[in-house]
Amino acid sequence: MQKDFITATPDSGGSGSTTVTAAASANQTESARSVNLSVAGGGMTRTVAASQAAGVVTWNYYFSVTPTSLSFVAGGESKSVTVTSYRKKVINGVETSTQENVNYTVAVTGTGFSGSGTTVTAAANSATSTRTGTATYTQATSGKSQGVSLSQAAAAKITVSPSSVFYQMTSPNTGQAYATTITVSNCPTQPTISISMNSGKSGGLDVILGDAAYTTPVSAGSNTWTFKIYPTRWQTVVMNPSGPSMVPGEYCQGTCTVRLAVGNTASVSIRGNIDTGIIP
Question: With the C-alpha atoms ordered 271, 277, 278, 279, is the resulting torsion angle positive or negative?
Fold first, then answer.
């Protein structure tokens, strides 16, 4: 005999005592269920209540991220990954068709890398070495995670043109009117500039061989920047009374260092040297 989810066997019997077995099929629902079974015989009817607990609900979690590695150009860019994150309901060990999306988070390590959702961004790499990182995606609740390897190409070595200044000057003039424009190439971000002047001897004394200044670098597009160097002071050098001596004249000499990052620098030689015919 079948009644709702209960099967009773046997469903009939003769005189005397008969054992009836009630068997319940698996409850593949999330609700408890019950039914009344009636047994009649000898002019009497008895009712037996049968109940069954709700099905045991668990979840199967599915999580994947593709691709598992991303490569970026030195100048910086953004790329995307595809994240598949969901779970399927399981009742009494049997997976159902019920599916739900599951949230996830991303944590990014490595200098210059950042992540938001499915987008990973690499800022411009100004170093002359490649850099690496990892974007780790983690599924909520299940804790499943998957890493995406990140790599970025090294920056090209920056170059400057011209590489020397003031060597053609014939008078010790100063100011921006006598500036030389320097072009910096292979430079994705604004470089930093510094100037150090050489020292020498004049009349037996240690002197700094002039001074120079520079303007703030401005972008010229296509990873190119320009700035100007100009003399602000020339040092008059005279013959030493004794010992080694520099050639008398007007000097503005030193080095201008252009720096994009550690290990990625270029130099402009400051070579101002004017023979003024000074006699010791």
Answer: positive
For residue 108, list its beta bridge partners: 135
Q: Measured between alpha carbons, how far is 191 from 257 in angstroms, rounded to an integer?
A: 10
Cis previous bond, 217, omega within 30: no
| Contact status, residue 230 vs residue 211, Cβ threshold 8 Å | no
Q: What are phi and psi of 176, to 5 degrees?
A: -65, -20
Question: CA angle 209-212-218, nearest 5°?
Answer: 155
Closest CA to 258 of 202, 174, 184, 166: 184
Lookup result for tokens 């005999």: 1
- Determine the straight-line distance between the first and last CA of the chain, rounded to whole angstroms: 131
* CA quadruple 96, 99, 100, 101: dihedral sign: positive
* ∠ Cα 188 190 192 (to 5°): 130
The lowest-confidence range among 15-19, 26-30, 148-152 is: 15-19
* Of 3-7, 63-67, 79-83, 103-107, the least confident: 3-7
Q: Which two tokens stand for residue 58?
A: 């668990």
The reply to whether the predicted model has a pTM over 0.85 is no
Residue 277 has a pLDDT of 57
Q: Which pLDDT score, from 0 to 100, does residue 278 have?
A: 52
